[in-house]
Amino acid sequence: MGLLRWNIIVPVMGCVCVSHGVQAKKRVVESKPNIVIILADDLGFGDISAYGENGIRTPNIDRIAREGIRFCNGYAASSTSTPSRYSLLTGRYPWREGAQVLNGNAPLLIREGLPTLPRMLQAAGYVTGVVGKWHLGLGNGDVDWNGEIAPGAREVGFDYSFITAATNDRVPTVYVENGKVVGLDPEDPIEVSYTRNFPGEPTGKSNPELLKFLPSHGHDQAITNGISRIGFMKGGKAACWVDETMGETFLAKAFEFVKQHKDQPFFLYYALHQPHVPRVPNPRFAGKSSMGARGDVILEADWCVGEFLKLLDSLALSENTIVIFSSDNGPVLDDGYQDGAIEKLGKHKPAGPFRSGKYSSYDGGTHVAFLLRWQGHVRPGSSDALVSQLDLYASLAALLGQPDETADGENVLKALLGKSGRGRKELLLEATGENVILRRGNWIYIPPMVHEGYWVPPMESGRMEVPQLFNVKKDAGQQENVADRHPVRVRKMDAALRQIRGIQ
To answer: Angle at the Cα of 24 (from 20 to 28), degrees rounded to 5?
Structure first.
């Protein structure tokens, strides 16, 4: 494919942001734009001050909003991590694969041969990399952590990977670079189990005196770095990460990838681990917020974003790099550790105006920050267009003249570039356990839902035995269920939801 020529200067739909730092000079970029997706973990819509300062300031993330488009109706595909990330990379609804939150020894969820965003970008001539949280499974179900780990990120379409297998609260607590555990001592091999402990290994339940802080629910199994996790692990002591330096470690690897590939089109999926539990800020951020560890790691994440943007500036890459920022799902406070997140919250509202958060069927579970910056090509402002991370594959394929092989993604490129105020007309959203919601226009329909048997933190799940209908333009906080007043709309939306899902 030949070089693409871009000279896109677009009007802003519903603009409320003021342009700062965007050069007036129009420039034709004689190359394909670099693409960076920065995905936070469990960060709420209200945790970003660009959406209305509400207890914490995030000036570096705000810079993306100030110099780009701030989407007010941006969504993750699911209110939990694994399903959401699956959809971002595949353009498929997570319920098609039965995607659920995975343990650290789960097999690769994305089937080999399935079209993916990084594979599409490889075909378009990009070098692709992923740095940070993975949580999509590795191997075929019986991972040898002491050898070559495959299939993994490479088989999904990433030329380079530096990742954690799952979340920072699950074992194995090691980094995996290009399919191999980093810093592993062959004389101290790793063993992992999610069913039984290894003889002689301490746990958070039996040895709380070894912990930096106590779990609130579960999270009381293997101990590494003074923190008890989910799952059991033996060995690999030299390879275990240090939670306090995890943010800096990922940032350094993101720097290396960009510097190495600055002279060719690159795609970087930079998956932050903040503010997922356990929240262990670097000492420079500890105590810097008024909200305890959760606030501190949000400040740390914001700093990481700022340092990354400075790198693009220093390499003269900012004008030829599309930067997309979002979160994998909505916020959560107590998610398994006693870290003061609830007690120190104050008046801050992590989900902003939306109801509930992570795990929930209500809008706070999936309605997330969604920012896009392309300096000199997309005029700053805000947009009410309905867009989803699910659509990034299809939209970027359209930008690059590549085929759209997604099952559920839509080409909303015009909305993403600010050329249109229209995005999707409707969108399916998933809570836990494949409970699926339909948003159509300004209406959200939540069908009667199943109550799962596994634990979720104290919060409003949104699961009820009766249908729920909300007009979120009039009632963003979903306080008034108007299903009884609109029976015809309920029937139509229920039928549409069933038809899309193939349910009789």
So the answer is: 125
Residue 437 structure tokens: 């919601």
Residue pLDDT, tens place only, 418-467: 999 999 999 999 998 779 999 999 999 999 987 665 556 778 999 999 99
Task: Taking residues 106-133, report their average pLDDT.
Answer: 97
For the beta carbon of residue 198, count every other beta carbon within 10 angstroms.
13
The length of the chain, given as a count of residues: 504
Q: What contacts 475, CB < 8 A, 6 or more positions away?
A: none
Question: Which pLDDT value is given to residue 21?
Answer: 35
Q: To 5 degrees, how large is the angle CA 451–CA 457–CA 462? A: 45
Is residue 15 predicted with pLDDT exceeding 50? no
**Euclidean distance between CA atoms 180 and 234, whole angstroms:** 17
CB 239 within 8 Å of CB 174 = yes
How large is the angle between the packed helices 59-66 and 292-314, nearest 10 degrees?
50
Single-letter amino acid, residue 495: A
Q: What's the one-letter identity of residue 35?
A: I
Model pLDDT for residues 292-307, shown as the tens digit of each residue = 999 999 999 999 999 9
CB 9 within 8 A of CB 26: yes
Supply the mean pLDDT for the chain. Answer: 93
pTM, rounded to two decimals: 0.94
Paired tokens of 253:
């690897």
pLDDT band at 31 (very low <50, low <70, confident <90, very high): low
What's the pLDDT at 129?
A: 99
DSSP assignments along 101-139, one per residue: PPPTTPPPSS-TT---HHHHHHHTT-EEEEEEE--S--T
Burial class of residue 287, CB neighbours in 10 A (0-12, 13-18, 19+): exposed
Neighbours of 263 (CB within 10 A): 9
Q: Is the bond leading into 275 cis (omega within 30 degrees of zero)?
A: yes
- Classify strands 127-133 and 266-271 as parallel, antiparallel or unpaired: parallel
* 222 C-beta neighbours (distance < 10 Å), count: 24
Name the CA radius of gyration of the chain, rounded.
22
Rounded CA gap, 169 and 195, in Å?
A: 16
* Residue 237, both tokens: 């002591």
DSSP designation for 310:
H
CB-facing half-sphere around the CA of 460: CA atoms within 13 A:
15
Please list the alpha-helical segments (H only) found in 157-291.
246-260
